[in-house]
Specification:
It is a single chain. With 785 residues, the protein is α/β, with parallel strands linked by helices. Among the domains are: 125 residues, Leucine-rich repeat, LRR (right-handed beta-alpha superhelix); 110 residues, Alpha-Beta Horseshoe (Leucine-rich repeat, LRR (right-handed beta-alpha superhelix)); 142 residues, Rossmann fold (3-Layer(aba) Sandwich), CATH 3.40.50.10140. It is 25% helix and 17% strand. The chain has 20 helices and 35 strands. Strand 34, helix 19 and strand 35 form a beta-alpha-beta unit. The protein starts with a helix and ends with a helix. It is found in: Cytoplasmic vesicle, Phagosome membrane; Membrane raft; Membrane. This is Toll-like receptor 2. One of its GO terms (cellular component) is nucleoplasm. Pfam families: LRR_8, LRRCT, TIR.
């Protein structure tokens, strides 16, 4: 190859390499027809090329992308969602997002960006969500990043290590945010009024390791914030100091403390923050640690007054290392009179003191899920005059074991309407129970009950008994509107007459095989049915009903995805809506009837033919013939009774009886012949007589004539003689040709005779009387041989 061509080939190869790489990266994206492209976790090191305006959502998170250039996204003018989180991006060119004017969601979290440029966001006026968490920056830059984002509603900034400063201009231009999350565990500087520019923040999440700057931030957001959430903070050293607050109109309604450490003293200080809440206050503690013993004697009268404004208290996963030294909290009982909702989950609560229950006079909702409550402790908690206005009680996953005792204990709660005692181990259900008179909702799911009794209150409107071991439902509940009975062992739908006003039924994941139009129509008020995940037998009637009712999709909320055939095996796993059966499967009764009729007619025809052509007799003859073939080939000598068995046609009987018998039986010494007229045993089957006579005779004489050929009996005698004698290559057969017979005239059914006449010598009856004496001499000699 000439050097010039070599040079062109090498240059072409080098130029084509980037194109091949780009093609490989583009092929790593999976896009659906709506323009949603997924490129997560594909080990991409750059944004794939070839992206067009058809792309509306692009997810490139969890890759190895390091650089975003001006041209990467230039053609994606209709892009609304861009996820670039969890990459290695350290550089974004100034106009990289310039063409993304429709972008609403941008995630740049957990990359290696050490600074942000306001020009990145200059054209993103439609942006609603922006996540900048987990990068390497120390501040948000020298200029305001968000001043061109008037529609931004959710903003997340900061990192766990290097973000140390919040500047006054950082949030300039933002007026309305639904959620603002600031991750600043190592925050060292907070410029006053940095957050004050935001006129309204629905939810502020602060990650602060220490509460040093908490009060300064609190002052700025007091008038604009509705929900303050503090995460991963050690409040053991927190001390509330008087702050100058000029605003009198505060909007804070909720405080959340998540993964926070607190002591008795610091909790007293935290409560002082509640003084600046407006209206009914909601307080939540989630996965917190209380390093104290519940000694709140330092609470001042003014602080205690603010506790009275708490209407909703939520405590989840509270850790109390000194639990067994904890005080009874009786000094704060009087502050609980206005609390309406209390949730204490997974916090090892085994008792609510009776006195505290009696002070909770406004309590309407109480959730004690995943604790240690038993019937004994519940009896103390639900004492007389306890929780007088309680409407909802949740005791899910505690240590309750008796439905009867639980119902009796709760009789003190006159206004209780909703009770959740799911995930307790009741196992059995008594025949009768007592319940509060206003009960409308009862949750008994996952309680291992095996049958239902009249223990279930008749006043119920909603009953949840899912995930148990029930195999039937026969309760009459005249007021029940919603029934949840999934994950049991029911084989059929409940009887509609038991549930006259039922509106909603969820009965999925049972072992129901079918349901009919009549069954559904019997639920006259049913609006919603969830019955997927059952073992449906896809019969023709069931398929015709489900596929022919268009309105069924409005009732079956999980149709058609959850409705799969379990049988027949040929369609197992197919969706009921898509299943088709063959006509033979759909009209099986008709097919079976037709087959039975055909078989009956066949048997009838065979019977008629057998009767007409003596088929039964032929079958018996065949059986005898087969037995004869299985007998020993040669009978013992002592069993020979005759010198010869004579096989002849009835029309030749004169010659046999008047000539042959006279010449042989009256000879000296006489020959003993076996004739069927004379020697067959009366009453014995003729075939057996033939076989026995041949076997007991030394020779078999066949008197051949035209009459012999036409005789069926002669044929049988010839067949039996052939199989018993000629198969042994013996000379036991003697052929007498009474009259000339042409071999061509012998019918094909006399194949044995044709064979014998070709292989055996036979005697011919002479018409000349002078030659007849020689015939008898030869015959006697043949019999004696």
């Amino acid at each position: 190859m000439p050097p010039a061509l070599w040079t062109v080939w090498v240059l072409g190869s080098v130029i084509s390499l980037p194109k091949e790489g780009a093609s490989d990266q583009a092929s790593s994206l999976s896009c659906d027809p709506t323009g949603v492209c997924d490129g997560r976790s594909r080990s991409l090191n750059s944004i794939p090329s070839g992206l067009t305006a058809a792309v509306k959502s692009l997810d490139l998170s969890s890759n190895e992308i390091t650089y975003v250039s001006n041209s990467d996204l230039r053609r994606c003018v209709n892009l609304r969602t861009l996820r670039l989180g969890a990459n290695e991006i350290h550089t974004v060119e100034e106009d990289s997002f310039f063409s993304l004017r429709s972008l609403e969601y941008l995630d740049l979290s957990y990359n290696r960006l050490s600074y942000f440029s306001s020009s990145w966001f200059r054209s993103l006026s439609a942006l609603k969500f922006l996540n900048l968490l987990g990068n390497l920056y120390k501040t948000l830059g020298e200029r305001s990043l968000f001043s061109h984002l008037p529609n931004l509603r959710i903003l997340k900034v900061g990192n766990s290590n290097s973000f140390t400063e919040i500047q006054e201009k950082d949030f300039a231009g933002l007026t309305l945010l639904e959620k603002l999350e600031i991750n600043a565990p190592n925050l060292q500087t907070y410029a006053p009024k940095s957050l004050k520019s935001i006129r309204n923040v629905s939810h502020l999440i602060l990650h602060l390791k220490q509460p040093v700057l908490l009060l300064e931030i609190f002052v700025d957001i007091l008038s604009s914030l509705e929900h303050l959430e503090l995460r991963d903070t050690n409040l053991n050293t927190f001390h509330f100091s008087k702050v100058s607050i000029s605003e009198t109109n505060t909007s804070i309604k909720k405080f959340t403390f998540r993964n926070v450490q607190i002591t008795d003293e610091s909790l007293t200080e935290v409560v002082k923050l509640f003084n600046y809440a407006s209206g009914g206050l909601e307080v939540e503690f989630d996965d917190c640690t209380h390093d104290g013993v519940g000694d709140f004697r330092t609470l001042t009268l003014e602080t205690m007054k603010r506790l009275r404004d708490v209407e909703t208290l939520t405590i989840r996963k509270l850790h109390v290392p000194q639990f067994f030294l904890f005080h009874d909290l009786s000094n704060i009982y009087s502050l609980t009179g206005k609390v309406k909702r209390i949730t204490i989950e997974n916090s090892k609560v085994f008792l609510v003191p009776c006195l505290l229950s009696q002070h909770l006079k406004s309590l309407e909702y109480l959730d004690l899920s995943e604790n240690l409550m038993s019937e004994e402790t519940l009896k103390n908690s639900a004492c007389e005059h306890a929780w007088p206005f309680l409407k909802t009680l949740v005791l899910r996953q505690n240590r309750l074991k008796s439905l009867e005792k639980t119902g009796e204990i709760l009789l003190t709660l006159k206004n209780l309407t909703n009770l959740d005692i799911s995930k307790n181990n009741f196992h059995s259900m008594p025949e009768t129970c007592q319940w509060p008179g206003k009960m409308k909702y009862l949750n008994l799911s996952s309680t291992r009950i095996q049958s239902l009794t009249r223990c279930i209150p008749q006043t119920l409107e909603i009953l949840d008994i899912s995930n148990n071991n029930l195999d039937s439902f026969s309760l009459i509940l005249p007021k029940l509107k919603e029934l949840y009975i999934s994950r049991n062992k029911l084989k059929t739908l409940p009887d509609a007459s038991f549930l006259p006003v039922l509106l909603v039924m969820r009965i999925s994941r049972n072992i129901i095989t079918t349901f009919s139009k009549e069954q559904l129509d019997s639920f006259q008020k049913l609006k919603t049915l969830e019955a997927g995940g059952n073992s449906f037998v896809c019969s023709c009637d069931f398929l015709s009903f489900t596929q022919g009712q268009q309105a069924l999709a409005h009732v079956l909320i999980d149709w058609p995805e959850e409705y799969l055939c379990d049988s027949p095996s040929s369609v197992r796993g197919q969706r009921v809506r898509d299943t088709r059966l063959s006509p033979s499967e759909c009209h099986r009764a008709a097919v079976v009837s037709a087959v039975c009729c055909a078989l009956f007619l066949s048997f009838l025809l065979v019977g008629v033919l057998c009767h007409r052509f003596h088929g039964l007799w032929y079958m018996k003859m065949m059986w005898a013939w087969l037995q004869a073939k299985r007998k020993p080939k040669k009978a013992p000598r002592r069993d020979i009774c005759y010198d010869a068995f004579v096989s002849y046609s009835e029309r030749d009987s004169y010659w046999v009886e008047n000539l042959m018998v006279q010449e042989l039986e009256h000879f000296r010494p006489p020959f003993k012949l076996c004739l069927h007229k004379r020697d067959f045993i009366p009453g014995k089957w003729i075939i057996d007589n033939i076989i026995d006579s041949i076997e007991k005779s030394h020779k078999t004489i066949f008197v051949l004539s035209e009459n012999f050929v036409k005789s069926e009996w002669c044929k049988y005698e010839l067949d039996f003689s052939h199989f018993r004698l000629f198969d042994e290559n013996d000379d036991a057969a003697i052929l007498i040709l009474l009259e000339p017979i042409e071999k061509k005239a012998i019918p094909q059914r006399f194949c044995k005779l044709r064979k014998i006449m070709n292989t055996k010598t036979y005697l011919e009856w002479p018409a000349d009387e002078t030659q007849q004496e020689g015939f008898w001499v030869n015959l006697r000699a043949a019999i004696k041989s």
